[in-house]
Amino acid sequence: MDPKIYRMDKNRRKADNFVDGVREHLRLGSKFSEIVKGKLSLGARILQLGGVKRVFRKIVCAKGEKLLKASQCYLSTTIGPIAGLLFISTQRVAFFCDRSIKFSSSNGELVRIHYKVSIPLRKIKRANQSENAKKPSHKFMEIVTMDNFDFWFMGFLNYQKAFSYLRQAISQAPNLIQK
Question: Do the beta carbons of residue 130 and residue 143 sit within 8 Å?
């Protein structure tokens, strides 16, 4: 195959994957204006703290931990998908939602919290790729913990890259039952 044609085809596939990721990311949000507002808020927060690595250090990081990849995505919850950042590091997978979530406390008061999930790599039993059978461009990432909790992430701008970093982190983590 001609190197120029090969390069053009490779770039076209990358562009198609990126467009599919953007489309999937937008599909999961409620309204386009809400998505834009959330992205601007998240971007402002990242800028205020000095970049994604500093956000990671401030919110998640432990001593000696290194960030491998940060990705914008959605976490599937019982109240619907929640937009945020997924951090894949040398010690954990963590999700952080910048926007606060309201819920009722046991005494009936409305409480606002930032949604956070932190899963140490040594507690991950397995990570699975999944896609919607009717719409293969809708891809999901499932993380199952040793105590059989599962976390579903979706709407990645670059799903394949995020999953490969997750696999890399899991394969380098000690004391895993299944890789």
Answer: no
